[in-house]
Amino acid sequence: MADRKLNNAARRKEFEAEALPHMDALYRTALRLAKNQSDAEDLVQEAFAKAYRFWDKFELGSNCRAWLFKIMTNIFINEYRSKARSPLQANIDDIDDNYLYGQLASGGQTENPEQTLFSKLFDDDVKKAIENLPDDFRLVAVLSFLEGFSYQEIAEIADLQLGTVKSRLHRGRKLLQRQLFDYAVKNGYIKEKAK
Amino acid sequence: MNCQDALELLYDIIDKEASEIDAKEVQEHLVSCRDCFKIYQLETNVQEFIAERIRGDGPSPQLDSLKDKIILRLDNIDNEVSPGQPPRSFGLIAKMLVAAACLVILIGAASIATDYYREYVYYTPLASAHHAVHDRTWDQPTFELSPSYLGLDFSNLGLEQGFVLINSSKEQICGVEMGHFVFRNSELTVSVFAALSGEYSIPEDCIDTQLSLDGKTFFNHQSNDCWLLFHEVGNAVIIAASTKADFDLSPFAPVEKVVLTDLSLP
Ligand SMILES: [Zn+2]
């Protein structure tokens, strides 16, 4: 598809109508990705600047939100993602599937044992657990949990295979559940299951 | 449906990705299986809890000032001499794309792909190599590379499998000049990029599998149904991709510096 060759005024008008309304969502995700306000603001600004430069190539009527997330994700991967591997990554495969269920539901005495855990955890505990995820897992988790993108959309946004999206989400979930449980035990909210 | 089948579909169901048939069968299983029902219930609650808590900031007071900053950036871009032009390092890729006469849009009906995506996505060597083997036809080959390029002999690569060098050109990727060598045999195409290692380093996301050959470390990275190989030899970084998902690319990984021969093959 050829450039649409818009003049400045027309480009600006379209961009402000189509792209800018997604700023809140981009910023919300950027905060979870970059982990601090100033990097998150930079990330969103870079994404909009890049999107604006390429706006003539954007196909009006296609999914603008996903297009913007793809641009931001690309910048995040190339410029913000930390080079170090997360220490959490080492022991993912040791974590059982349905980890919280295994830890909480053993006695079967209460109907929803997880409710006790939830009622004790603060928003910040959950955000910290998300932020502790290795960057690659955090990216797919945030796109899924926070933005509700489908597996296929995430695959396109992050340039991953569908299977990779699913496995990263699955492993991200395990790490999240493990962290939330450990956090609750450490703070005495719940008792660890007797081995 | 048994318990194992039901639990395998757990996250597909929670993420609303399961087919209607699967969802119905799971539903039927959960009615009769208390254990699976409890797992589904807990996992669904955990998912809702996490999603709700990470969404929970409410509108941020920073958003107004962020919007002002963005508007300022847009003003600055409008005031540039040639607005709408891609940054310089994208230029050659754009040409590559025009040269590839028919671009196959790989992504389906719900596609969010545009030409922009192609241009944007293919600005890394990894993605360009993938693009080169999947989308480009190479019916007008060039052999423009100086034989001394990086001091490596590329013409012998893959010989035992009948590969012939069908194109060698210089391409600008990420603002770095790279040699691009394309090989083909009766079955498939292999694309090899080479750059000075100081200019381009192996990206962090190539850690999916790591293997060693002759004491060198390789990173095999699966992306979009093609295997990519990265490694460093001498002063070069080599990136190779093939059209076949499980094709062993190690013949395209020169392990030592060798004397160059003429690259302008028949
Ligand atoms: Zn069951």
Provide a quick synopsis of the model.
Chain A is mostly helical. Chain A is built from 10 helices and no strands. Chain A has helices at 8-18, 23-34, 37-53, 64-80, 99-104, 113-120, 123-132, 135-146, 151-158, 162-186.
Descriptive account of the structure:
The complex is a heterodimer of chains A (195) and B (266). Helices cover 65% and strands 0% of the residues of chain A. By secondary structure, chain A is an all-alpha fold. Chain A has 2 domains: 8-80, Rna Polymerase Sigma Factor, Chain: A; 89-186, Winged helix-like DNA-binding domain superfamily/Winged helix DNA-binding domain (Arc Repressor Mutant, subunit A), CATH 1.10.10.10. In chain A, helix 4 (64-80) crosses helix 9 and helix 7 (123-132) packs across helix 10 (162-186). Chain A is elongated. The mean pLDDT of chain A is 84. By secondary structure, chain B is α+β, with helices and mostly antiparallel strands. Chain B folds into 2 domains: 33-121, no CATH class; 138-256, Phosphorylase Kinase, domain 1. Chain B contains 8 helices and 7 strands, in the order ααααααααβββββββ. A 7-stranded antiparallel β-sheet of chain B has the order 1-2-3-7-6-5-4, with helices on one face. In chain B, strand 6 (226-233) and strand 7 form a beta hairpin. In chain B, helix 3 packs across helix 4 (34-55). The longest helix of chain B is centred in the N-terminal third of the chain and has 22 residues, at 34-55. Chain B is flat. Chain B starts with a helix and ends in a 24-residue tail after the last strand. Mean pLDDT of chain B is 65; it is low at 81-123, 204-226 and 257-266. The chains are: A mainly alpha (195), B alpha+beta (266). At the A-B interface, helix 1, helix 2, helix 3, helix 4 and helix 5 of A face helix 4, helix 5 and helix 7 of B. Residues 3, 6, 29, 33, 35-36 of chain B line the site of zinc ion.
